[in-house]
Design goal:
Elements (H helix, E strand, L loop, with lengths): L5 H4 L2 H13 L7 H11 L4 E7 L3 E8 L10 E3 L5 H7 L3 E3 L8 H4 L2 H4 L5 E8 L5 E9 L7 H14 L18 H7 L3 E6 L4 E4 L1 H7 L3 H4 L11 E2 L2 E2 H8 L8 E8 L5 E13 L2 E8 L5 E2 L1
Antiparallel strand pairs: 1-2, 1-6, 2-3, 4-5, 5-6, 7-8, 7-13, 9-10, 11-12, 12-13, 12-14
Helix pairs in contact: 3-7
Length: 295
């Protein structure tokens, strides 16, 4: 159940950490907009935001896919905030269907009533002293279940952002690039990224452990040379051709058959999404090891 704890929200120590976080976050050595994009794609959600909770307002630090008129000046009243529930509880808060949620405050929340949000999953962001200062929140416009794997992924991303340091660097660090390698290494789900030409360009540590291949054995090679996948009796290149023009917001869950280094075939339920960028399109697959079966 969502709750608002004014004693926590108005704590002088917490508010001081929030003010520090507002100064420090723009100087983080990563693009926070790219972090929110990565988090959204990781759980196949169309939207994500990083927000900080003040005494009367909440502040947007970064976002992906959010409504442009939600906070055009970078802040909004706490009445429009979901992160206040996370800060109050100091633990993750979620709703799978905001319109039928048990809590009236969720059912009547402006994001549900006025903007069309239907589901959200939010985890705390902490300041340097450990106080909850805000939240990393993924949202969807359709009701959906949130799995333990979804929560794990969003927690992994949140841990890369915080605890937010108390001191602002004297010289702002460049924020044009996302440390994708660091994000992927930290994730406990297997991640595979494939170009539209069927070349593997992403293969994290969890994928190495699951399939037995080293990243340098798989990356920069056509996927058919190593993982030899099958997709509903179609080769991967044909599947990529069919998915190439799928919008980034479209999420798919499909079973893949992947070959391990020792030749075994694994049936893996994968969460798939297309990521379109200036360098081309990527098919991103996230695989939860607990759902894998051998054949």
């Amino acid at each position: 159940m969502a709750a608002i704890n004014q004693a926590v929200i108005n704590s002088p120590e917490r508010l001081q950490e929030t003010r520090r976080a507002r100064l420090v976050l723009p100087c983080m050595p990563m693009s926070l907009d790219r972090v929110t994009e990565f988090a959204a794609h990781a759980v196949l959600a169309p939207m994500c935001q990083i927000t900080l909770v003040g005494e009367l307002e909440y502040y947007f630090a970064a976002g992906y896919g959010m409504w442009p008129d939600l906070a055009p000046e970078g802040h909004a009243p706490l009445s429009h905030s979901l992160c206040k529930f996370v800060v109050s509880a100091d633990h993750p808060v979620l709703s799978e269907n905001m319109l039928t949620d048990d809590d009236r405050r969720i059912r009547e929340h402006p994001l549900a009533v006025d903007y069309g949000a239907r589901a959200f999953l939010a985890v705390p962001l902490r300041g340097g002293a450990g106080e909850p200062v805000g939240a990393l929140t993924v949202l969807d416009t359709v009701p959906r279940p949130w799995t333990a794997a979804d929560l794990l992924k969003i927690n992994d991303v949140a841990e890369l952002i915080g605890p937010i340091p108390a001191e602002r660097p004297e010289t702002p660090l460049p924020t044009t690039a996302l440390d994708t390698a660091g994000l992927l290494r930290s994730m406990q789900e297997a991640f595979i990224a494939i170009t539209s030409d069927s070349v593997v360009v992403g293969f994290n540590h969890a994928a190495e452990q699951m399939l037995g291949w080293a990243a340098d054995q798989v990356c920069n090679r056509p996927i058919e040379q190593t993982l030899c996948p099958e997709y509903e009796d179609q080769i991967m290149s044909r599947m990529l051709g069919e998915m190439r023009f799928a919008p980034s917001q479209v999420r798919m869950r499909r079973e893949l058959r992947l070959r391990t280094r020792n030749g075994d075939l694994l049936t893996v339920p994968a969460s798939l999404s297309m990521v379109h960028g200036s360098a081309g399109s990527l098919l991103c697959a996230f695989i939860n090891a607990t759902e894998v079966s051998s054949s």
